[in-house]
Amino acid sequence: MEAQxxxxxxxxxSPRADxxxxxxxxxxxxxxxxxxxxxxxxxxxxxxxxxxxxxVSLLNAHVLKVFNPVLLPAPDEVLRAGIKMAASGExxxxxxxxxxxxxxxxxxxxxxxxxxxxxxxxxxxxxxxVEPTLxxxxxxxxxxxxxxxxxxxxxGESSKVAFIAYAAFFPVFTTTVEGIKYVxxxxxxxxSSLGATERQIFWHVVLPAATPxxxxxxxxxFGLSFFVIVAAEFIAADSGLGYLINDARTxxxxxxxxxxxxxxxxxxVTANVLLRKLEGRLLRWRAESRGKS
Amino acid sequence: MKSIQIERVTKSYTEGALALDEVSLELxxxxxxxxxxxxxxxxxxxxxxxxxxxxxxxxxxxxxxREVTHAGxxxxxxxxxxxxxxxxxxxxxxxxxxxxxxxxxxxxxxxxREYLSLVGLAEHEGxxxxxxxxxxxxxxxxxxxxxxxxxxxxxxxPFGALxxxxxxxxxxxxxxxxxxxxxxxxxxxxxxxxxxFLADRIVVMATQPGxxxxxxxxxxxxxxxRSSAEFVALEREIKRLVREEVAKLGVTG
Lengths: 293, 253
Hints:
The structure holds 2 protein chains of 2 kinds.
Chain A: H1 35-64, H2 75-87, H3 90-122, H4 124-137, H5 146-153, H6 157-181, H7 185-193, H8 198-235, H9 241-250, H10 254-282
Chain B: E1 2-12, E2 18-28, E3 32-36, H1 43-51, E4 58-63, E5 66-67, E6 75-78, H2 90-100, H3 105-118, H4 134-146, E7 152-156, H5 164-180, E8 184-189, H6 192-198, E9 201-206, E10 211-217, H7 229-252
Parallel strand pairs in B: 3-8, 3-9, 6-7, 7-8
Antiparallel strand pairs in B: 1-2, 1-4, 4-5, 9-10
């Protein structure tokens, strides 16, 4: 909740005395940690993970010999595998293959999700006509349709793109419907009393009010796209990071399998950071803290 | 010249309860009228009908001689909850009316600036609503309503969400603004002192069904002193009227 500042009686003479609400004030948690401590802890988390991995791998290979050392290569081996594959250009080929499928599928899902979501959010008739079907399909894991999509669209690019588009459609669609439907009716009244037409209310009130919801849906959908592309490339592809992992499995190249997973992780984190940045820029008006001009 | 004519307006909701029963009222141009009464007397319903948000069940409402059929730019509305567009800065909020009327960018910016300085917020034009205090938000909302040059300004308990001090400041500010930019004002409140401080005319409303109980003309000169004998006497008289209605609610409700 926002803290409201008190307008001092002197504000009548000088309204500048009105103090703005302390937008940046967040409720302090009982034990607040200093920033350097936080950074250090977060770094330790990562270091500990890699140290543990390295330790277990080396200890098993040279001392304990509990399992076949091929099953768990050390982080440096994975890194070396990565450098080798990057040098040959193979890694880049897989990355672009996966990324282009994700971008296509996600793009289609985003456009369709926002469009259908908006239409359903605006029209009761359409909502009752379409929503039950979508609600029936939604709980079915998209993966269940993957083999069928391969039958329908073949093993080319279109089956993967269609599959991602299908999976990513739902989060965009649901959040858009919610956003459009639950716009504060008072804002619509305010706009209409300012002379806005139905059309203007849609473009200048309903859509901006629904934007935070839509952006959340897009972010979820993007994450989901990456999630499903790997599965799709397991079963029907000759390129892509999912294919890389699955192909490495047949040749028992565990380093390459881990490499594929690591690259997917890095891309996912990068994409999320970029999307958050974009979100922060688009939704500047409701950011938690902002420098007071 | 009559600005607002309310002719035998009745409003009943589907449950059968009468919110308003045959209310007739005429408000002259540039007058300041307060609709006063306990909750449930239909004062907000009446205001929402003048605004065009809801339709009367029977009867007519005319603003500047034209029948009200829907919300329109000739009637500016200020809400208790401010209803600012959170994604627009203060100045962009004020520009909204001129923007939807198709006024050019430069011109509407100039208009918005003029009204923001009228309400004393010239230096806060680039701030988003969440960066403003309650009183400042309501100033922006008033500027937004006025920037559209409405002939009527409808205010639905606009200072109800503000603390006592801010509320008094805003009442003084509203009178100052009204002096500079005269409009027919209809102001809904349940505060007796607020209505005496502001209005030329106080319409005291009765409950169940909502009707006009009494119309009190306030002849005190501005600025009105809340502790003056005349103010206190008037306050006592109106309190008696309102009490009767509150008592009625206590018995039946």
